[in-house]
Amino acid sequence: MLGRAVRIVEAFRPGEDTLAVTEVARRSGLHLATTSRMVGQLVDLGLLRREPDRRVGLGMRLWELGSRASPALTLREAAMPVMEDLHAVVGHHTQLGVLDGREVLFLERLSAPDAVINYTRIAGRLPLHASSSGLVLLAHAPRELQEEVLAGPLRTFTQATIATPRALRAALDRVRREGAAVCRGHFHPDACGVAVPVRSASGAVVAALSVIVPNDADARTHVTALRAAARGASRRLTSH
Asked: Alpha-carbon distance 86 to 118, whole Å?
């Protein structure tokens, strides 16, 4: 029963406000009658909401429960002040991401109307090998996870996306050596991702702080500001 409920909730993708019950059934792989019955129960519990047109969406109760005692909430609260300062300096997208499985999960994102193109969003995910935040997190991840990702497949988004195990190993070595990842055009030719690690009091990498800026000669110059912001986030995280 719990597994079915999770499959129903997971049917909602980032940016989707509502779905028809038939679409929830299709995505979850459940029979329509089963989906309809369970959706009704989840609506009664406040985990889903039903609109006047009978479509359903995620409920506020789900957000409330997910926010309680979440390690991600503490991390976000510690990072937000320095992210706001960094965003004011950079003027483009500023992001905070964490490792979740074989993906980077973004906890926070600050942007501006005229910022360079960016595909990430809050609660959105990207592959580890194809993003600056992902490379930072993967470079400091357990060896077993690194080998899993290296074994592929490595999905490409542009001609610049890392596409081979050899190139990925070299990129991870470079991140560990330089303390930062610079990904020029990995998701879009016009954008460059720059990321650095955020560390806990023990020195473990717990998040990646990144900016998405124009893919030009000035992109790498943001590393210094990112490092200063990451140190500030680490200090605040330790004091929480």
From this structure: 17
Give the other-Cβ count within 10 Å of 225's Cβ.
16
- pLDDT per position as a tens digit, 213-225: 999 989 999 999 9
pLDDT band at 16 (very low <50, low <70, confident <90, very high): confident
Nearest partner of 192 among 153, 124, 141, 135, judged by Cα: 135
Q: Determine the pLDDT at residue 113.
A: 77
pLDDT digits (tens, 9 = 90+) for 63-88: 777 766 566 778 888 899 999 999 99
| Paired residues of 214 in beta bridges | 191
